[in-house]
Specification:
This protein is mainly α. The chain has one domain (12-445): Amino acid/polyamine transporter I, CATH 1.20.1740. Helices cover 76% and strands 0% of the residues. α3 crosses α4 (74-81), α6 crosses α14 (287-297) and α15 (302-336) crosses α16 (340-360). The longest helix is centred in the C-terminal third of the chain and has 35 residues, at 302-336. Bound molecules: phenylalanine. Phenylalanine is lined by residues 22-23, 25-28, 101, 226-227, 229, 232, 234, 320, 323-324.
């Protein structure tokens, strides 16, 4: 494919919508609240926001620049920008990371399908927290049912990716995001007005700095990379589809703000309800699935809201899995000349295999442990706490130290039309702040900081 016939996202809204579709997903609504709940509430939120601003935004911009300048998949773009060097391995690492993320992400995506069915058949009404927890536990630790939903979900993802970049991804992202936003706001209003809900807001917005540990910092950083789809080539791949006329830095600001607002709104919908209903905020991955059905049961029109919410959660998951699969597909199609359909089928089979491992690790195989974790937590922790931050670090080093600054400026200014007055600060973040912060956070958690004597 030559530069000119590479498919572009059709409209400006299309790019933002597709990148936002990748970023906004289970990470915001399912993972962010439970990570926050397990990591001390308000203090986590502050570190998370710092990571988003100081690491996430510059790295997303770098990924867009790499992709749009390289005009290829995650590894191919590096090959074009640094021919004869080994930087493409960063892209390859991203393809591998995509697989692993998909390996647990499809499990939770499958849960959303189950909950659509439960919402439609009015299962939440008149059930107390204990019953809702039991229903979730019985379902998620079961064997066949979760696997069926994973399979259904993967078939939907694969079909959309097969339909191609522009048609499939852009159309599905465009109008569903605003709808999701409206529903979460409605949920938030209901949750905050529950008796005792104010304690939830206090937990969320009143930081207790005594709770900050190296684990909390690493979790917040991992969550920032995960939620913004960074460090694994996703935004490089999407960057390669962005038209040359688009203002990249503005796109970064829009995507990051939307992603962050949705995560915070999700937390506002969940924690007041958690405190009002006496649920443990550090419950873990089941938090959203036992809290929100409870809120729906207490809401006028709860039946309809519940259906709408789980349908949109499922769609939000879908626009993320589409982007993850696209990283893998673009790589094999461009680097190894696979037919799109062949690699989609192969990747789907591989992902299903990992998905089944993850799902079973919550039930019958819960005793199968690697590094003290089942497959589900292993795929989750390995990707968000190690692979994505390390990928992000390498991307920051590549764009901060290696890539030609004039060509980066050219890419950002769109021939002088767009503001680039942040450029020096941006390069400073890439050169120093990101590499130092990411290394220290990971080393600190591994306990190496003590060993190194600081
Ligand atoms: N950002 C997505 C979410 O928050 C997950 C994701 C990670 C998607 C990495 C693509 C790449 O749900």
């Amino acid at each position: 494919m030559t530069i000119n016939d590479r498919i572009n996202f059709g409209s400006k809204l299309g790019v933002v919508a597709a990148a936002a579709g990748s970023a906004v997903g289970l990470g915001n609504i399912w993972r962010f609240p439970y990570e926050l709940g397990q990591n001390g509430g308000g203090a986590f939120l502050i570190i998370y926001l710092l990571c988003v601003i100081l690491l996430g935004m510059p790295i997303m911009l770098s990924e867009f620049i790499i992709g749009r300048t390289g005009q290829a998949n995650a590894a191919g773009s590096f090959k074009k920008l640094a021919p004869g060097q080994k930087w493409w391995i960063v892209g390859l690492m991203g393809v591998f990371t995509s697989f692993l993320i998909m390996g647990f992400y499809v499990v939770v995506s499958g849960w959303t399908l189950e909950y659509i069915v439960q919402a439609v058949s009015n299962q939440f009404i008149n059930k107390d927290t204990a019953t809702l927890s039991r229903v979730f536990a019985d379902f998620s630790t079961g064997t066949l049912r979760p696997i069926i939903w994973i399979t259904v979900f993967m078939i939907i993802t694969a079909t959309i990716v097969l339909a191609g970049v522009q048609k499939g991804i852009e159309r599905s992202s465009k109008f569903l995001m605003p709808l999701l936003l409206i529903i979460i706001i409605a949920l938030g209003i209901r949750a905050v007005t529950l008796p005792g809900g104010i304690d939830g807001l206090r937990f969320l917005f009143k930081p207790d700095f005594g709770k900050i540990t190296s684990e909390v910092v690493l979790s917040a950083m991992g969550q920032a990379f995960f939620s913004l789809s960074l460090g694994m080539g996703c935004m490089i791949t999407y960057g390669s589809y962005i038209s040359k006329k688009t203002n990249l830095s503005k796109t970064v600001v829009q995507v990051t703000m939307l992603d962050t607002v949705i995560a915070i709104l999700a937390a506002i919908a969940i924690f007041p309800a958690v405190f009002s209903l006496g649920i443990n905020p550090a419950q873990g991955p089941e938090l959203v699935f036992i809290t929100l059905p409870n809120v729906f049961a207490h809401m006028p029109g709860g039946y309809v809201w519940a259906i709408l919410f789980f349908v949109l959660l499922c769609v939000a998951a879908l626009t993320s899995t589409i982007s993850l699969l696209e990283v893998i597909v673009a790589y094999f199609v461009e680097e190894y000349k696979f037919h799109r359909i062949t690699i989609i089928l192969l990747a789907t089979a591989g992902i299903l295999f990992l998905g089944v491992l993850s799902s079973l690790s919550l039930g019958v195989w819960k005793d199968v442990q690697i590094f003290g974790m089942g497959f589900f937590s292993l795929f989750d922790s390995l990707t968000s706490k190690i692979l994505m931050p390390v990928g992000g670090l390498l991307i920051a080093v590549f764009t901060g130290w290696k890539l030609n600054k004039d060509s980066m400026l050219e890419e950002l200014s769109g021939g002088g039309q767009f503001k680039t007055n942040f450029f020096k600060f941006y390069i400073f973040l890439l050169r120093f702040v990101a590499p130092v912060a990411i290394s220290l956070i990971i080393l600190n958690q591994l306990g190496l900081s003590q060993w190194l004597g600081f």
